[in-house]
Amino acid sequence: MTSWFTPLRRFAACLGATTLLSAALPASAVELSFYYPVAVGGPVTKTLDDMAASFEKENPGITIKPVYAGSYQDTIAKVLTAAKGGAAPNVAVLLSTDMFTLIDENVITPFDKVANTPADQEWFKSFYPGFMANSQTGGKTWGIPFQRSTVVMYWNKDLFKEAGLDPNRAPKDWNELVEFGKKLTKRDAAGNVTTWGVQVPSSGFPYWLFQCFTTENGVELMNSAGTETYFDKPAVVEALQYWVDLSRKHAIHPPGVVEWGTTPKDFFERKAAIIWTTTGNLTNIRANAKFDFGVAMLPAGKQPGSPTGGGNFYLFDKNTPEQNAAALKFVKWMTEPKRAAEWAIATGYVAVSPAAWETPEMKKYVADFPAPIVARDQLKYAVAELSTHENQRVTKALNDGLQAALTGAKTPEAAMKDSQREADRILRSYR
Questions:
Q1: Which residue stretches does the UniProt record annotate as biased composition, category Basic and acidic residues (predicted)?
Q2: Per-residue model confidence as pLDDT tens digits over 182-240
Q3: Which CATH architecture has domain 3-149+309-381?
Q4: 75, 92, 156, 288: least surrounded by Cβ within 10 Å?
Q5: What CATH number was assigned to the domain covering residues 150-306+384-430?
Q6: Residue 213 phi/psi, 5° resolution?
Q7: Are 112 and 332 in contact (CB under 8 A)?
Q8: 3 state SS of 364
Q9: Residues 143, 361: Cα–Cα separation, whole Å
Q10: What is the dihedral of CA 243, 387, 234, 151, to 10 degrees?
Q11: CA 267, CA 201: separation in Å to the nearest integer?
């Protein structure tokens, strides 16, 4: 449900009349509407409210008006609807993979248009290259990394001990994942599973979790221009077969479609010994797991790896020059090393620049809790998240194929051939 946060009009309160507010503000005052998705666990809205209030205090001529718009899918739908109605936000956090869709809809403007000094060029270079891969295309910078992530593996150390496994060592490759999973899967006297060895969610963002398997199998799902996909390549089919086999052959993974939203809860309740999910759930898991847990890079197939994920800041093309200048100031403020570290600590997302990891706050945090370093170090093996023109339609074609294979409705090979055929049909006009 959409909610609106309006900062307190302190000037009006002091004067005793809201009609005097405009006179109390500087002549150059700018109000920015800011759409933000609330999509993962944790009290992110309070953190964001606090950061917006701090920014306003430091920049009294700018008011930030956050709109909490639900999931990422909800948020882009609302953004596009508002844009078509002539009421686009001034700035928004949307998925990095929405870049091509936003370009195709002609609703965003590249940051280069506003940030065009040599110092700005250095600012673009200050972010991790792995995150900029989903932020730039055609020689332009369309998005600025904010709440970015990779997929990591969490494991319950108590269940590892009970299974006779070293609680401080996660499975390092696909073979060990199966080996460990067999030892960790528990059944009651009637043969019903009470704890699954491993759980990888396949609702919500199935393509993203699947891209973990394809990356580990040494194959990419699309080209950098967003005009081609490779869903039916043999290595892609092989990766899907491995995922299907975890449940249908090895019986260490729940059958069918596994819910994204309940996977952390299943982990808390010891229904799953190992889960794969976003680093954005790290703070949630740390707060709610009543047992010692570990965090590791995903197990390697032919190689280690994960897609990046999460959201970028975008600027909208109907902004006035004054709104663009204010929005750029806000985005730069939010992504300063100190703020990036603060956001990462509060949420579990990966701090988006190397400089953020050198701040005193981050150094102290990881000294006490080193788990976030895993996601940072995994960036060297990361690839760009699946992103194409007509991205929602293309990912739906892939998601439908993945769920058909996982439920047994189609073989992995047939599912990926059908998904590729549909993606080709959608993308033909962009080639």
A1: 415-431
A2: 999 999 999 999 999 999 999 988 999 999 999 999 999 999 899 999 999 999 999 99
A3: 3-Layer(aba) Sandwich (3.40)
A4: 288
A5: 3.40.190.10
A6: -65, -40
A7: no
A8: helix
A9: 26
A10: -30
A11: 12
